[in-house]
Amino acid sequence: MTTTTPTVPETPPTIGRRGPIRRLYDWVLHWATTPYAVPALFVLSFAESSFFPIPPDVLLIALCIGNVRGSYRYAFWCSIASVLGGIAGYGIGMFAWDQLRDLFYAWVPGVNEASVAKVSALYEQHNFWIVFVAAFTPIPYKVITILAGVCAISFPMFVIASAVGRSARFFLVAWLIRHFGPSIKDFIERRFALVTIAGTALLIGGFVAIKYLM
């Protein structure tokens, strides 16, 4: 499947201008101008959910800008692949954590002894919300998927929370670009994290309010 040549997004302020992460970012972005853009988006979305450091939003934004009418289709494939990748992360945590623990500590950003202990404690009381918040916001989703398997939380609940959170995130990106056009790109890159965090806070606050008012 081919797309029209997109406007390549500027580097977000959180991405360094030099070094291996920047080169990896550029490598991800270059797929937007190739005939393999959609397969690359699928693979990237899958890999990011368990180990890859660059979020799929980078390529998703470029594709949506290049073909605004196809934005929802890109968001759909991005969501499907990300949830499947989350399931793979869950499997890593459940079946291979003891063998791969040191490797993840060394190479996967955000995965360390402190994060494992902290998230494991949170899972005891808020398992659905932990997965949803990580799936929707900039919190490293890969850390949550792996630790969901380590903590053996309910698998159906994990899949549901992942599907809701990931779909909401990627379809929100697609909706913004479809309705506001390429001019919204800078807002997404610089303010999208705040939007998702604020939206999550309002959603959780609403459920808490209903719980105490009913």
Explain this structure:
This protein has helices at about 20-30, 35-50, 55-65, 70-95, 95-105, 115-135, 140-150, 155-180, 185-214. The protein is mostly helical. It has one domain (about 20-214). Helix 6 crosses helix 7 and helix 6 crosses helix 8.
Question: What's this, in brief?
Answer:
The chain is mainly alpha-helical and 214 residues long.
SSE inventory with pairings:
Layout: H1 20-30, H2 37-48, H3 57-66, H4 71-95, H5 97-107, H6 113-136, H7 141-150, H8 155-180, H9 185-213
Helix pairs in contact: 2-4, 3-4, 3-8, 4-7, 4-8, 6-7, 6-8
Could you list some keywords that capture this structure?
214 residues, mainly alpha, globular, disordered N terminus
Which parts are unreliable, with pLDDT below 50 for 5 consecutive residues or more? Answer: 1-17, 206-211
- Terminal residue distance: 51 Å
- Structural domains: how many: 1
| Overall 3D shape | globular
Radius of gyration: 17 Å
Average residue pLDDT: 81
Q: What's the total number of strands?
A: 0
Structure class:
mainly alpha
Q: What is the N-to-C succession of helices and strands?
A: HHHHHHHHH
DSSP strand (E) fraction?
A: under 5%
Number of discrete helical segments? 9
Outline the biggest β-sheet. none
Q: Share of helix among residues? A: over 70%
